Amino acid sequence: MLFDQSVLVQTLQAYLPFLSYLPAQVQHHVRSMHLDLTPVFDSTSHEAEALNIRLSLEAPCISANSTLVELQLSYGNVPSQRYDGESLEALDDNGRLDLTIWDDERQSIRRWLPQRETEGDVVLAMRALPRHVDINTPIGPRSDLRKQHGGLLGAGMLMLPSPPTPDEVYDITVTWNSTGAPPETQIASSLGEGVITKVRSTLQAIQLSVFAVGPLRRFPADISESPDFAILYFDPDPPFDIPDLASFIQALFANMSAFFRNKVQQPYRIFLRSSPRAVGGAGFLDSFMLEYHHDQTVTQTETKELLTHEVVHNWPLMECTAGHRAVVGADCGWYSEGIATYYQSHLPYRFNLTNRPEFVRSLNGLAQAYYTNPTIGYDNEEASAKAWQDPEAQRLPYHRGMMYLTSIDSQIREASQGRKGVDDTVFELLERRRAGQRYDLRTWLDLVEVELGASAVDDYERMANGTLVVPSRECLAQYGLELVRHDQERFELGFDPTISFNTRRISGLVAGSRAAAAGIADGDELVGPHTLLWQAADDIERNMTMTLQRDATRYEVTFWPRSQKEVESWQWQSVDRA
């Protein structure tokens, strides 16, 4: 049995963060939800090895054979905890509550159905186990529970079943039981730091939160000096300049909060997670998870750009509406990722956190990443459908959206004689989200149509259907820049990136490519660090370097991952005022 009689600690001050998505109107009675987390430590190594979970729901009133709770079977290519068989147990006022598991494969959701009507409150118990990963584990969304230098770190979305009521507001209490934990154990989540955190919100509060427990380090170390910002990590020697990173992100977040018109200063936490391979990250509620690998070189500047992109995700989002296009995300990914890509260059420069050469370099890197993308002709639906099979398709909405938004900004500035820009439309969409109103694609099109007329809808459809987006020459004239044609070679790695990087063996080598000319062959084993695909694709001058092995012989190879055939491309340059 997973139920026990442990007394949960009920001390320490509760922390109540402001959540920007809390609906303006709340039900007369707000039901409570209690999430109790108990880390399990190995008696010999004293390392955290599991997380016992108790989820208490106030009077859900679920009839027999209806959904009590549900959990995604996977997110992208990352499996959830799933809790097979009877590993998820339930009690209500009448005692044991037998559950039936029903998997909706089409929506990738597992549902638990009570075999009788529930009576009173329901308590669920389960044990979440860290996912085993190694160098051969395919890269995917950073949301699974993993071991970290004696601790555990993971997101709620793949380990916390929840009621099928995503829009209902709950009084949520998260309580940690650290009785018997090693003395160096620290606790933190996206919701706050400490044994008890409370929030009134929708289920997003726990689904989109990161949870961490173990020998956790904090910068700044003194929480009283920085209660609303921290970098949290387990690794005693992370490959970053932590103080410099903290200084940049803290200033960036404060400026962004003001820019996006926050009425209350939101907290923000960055969780670092070491990985056996690759570098990347994922945005969560008022937080970000940055995943790194010691042997993969990522500069401090690249790290700051990555974090800047993710910090933007705290505000301008677009609600996905699966009915508009067959593939979920096809009608909103261009905006959610495109606006974050747009602002990752613009806002640090506006806030004087980067200089002009850095700003122009960033803009041109993003522009060429769009124009030289081999999947540039995909429509938004095809790009979304192939996102986890083709990394270039996954990247396309980021840069396509950025160029489209640059074009829209220029058109709005011209139509309003400089009184408005795309910022104003972004703010309007954000305020509708805050007010609990629609903030989907239809809302966006209505807003830009007001500014630009019916042609705005045609512009969107052309972009969504894969037509090349080329803003006007004067689109960034406010910065003293002009967009000029500068054809460049299309990005071509020269082999299948998905199969090759996932299996760690070269596959799908393209005859005549620069990779082939460098001596790479199908079947070569990837045995050491290499230039990351996004590093090479975002920098037109970046070479791909790889350490490979063939017939027990290691060799290093360097080549320029481009196609040797130029495609239409544009770059920004300073206006010559002479």
From TrEMBL:
InterPro entries: Peptidase_M4/M1_CTD_sf (IPR027268), Peptidase_M61_catalytic (IPR007963). Residues 305-392 form the Peptidase M61 catalytic domain. Pfam families: Peptidase_M61. This is Peptidase M61 catalytic domain-containing protein. It comes from Oleoguttula mirabilis.
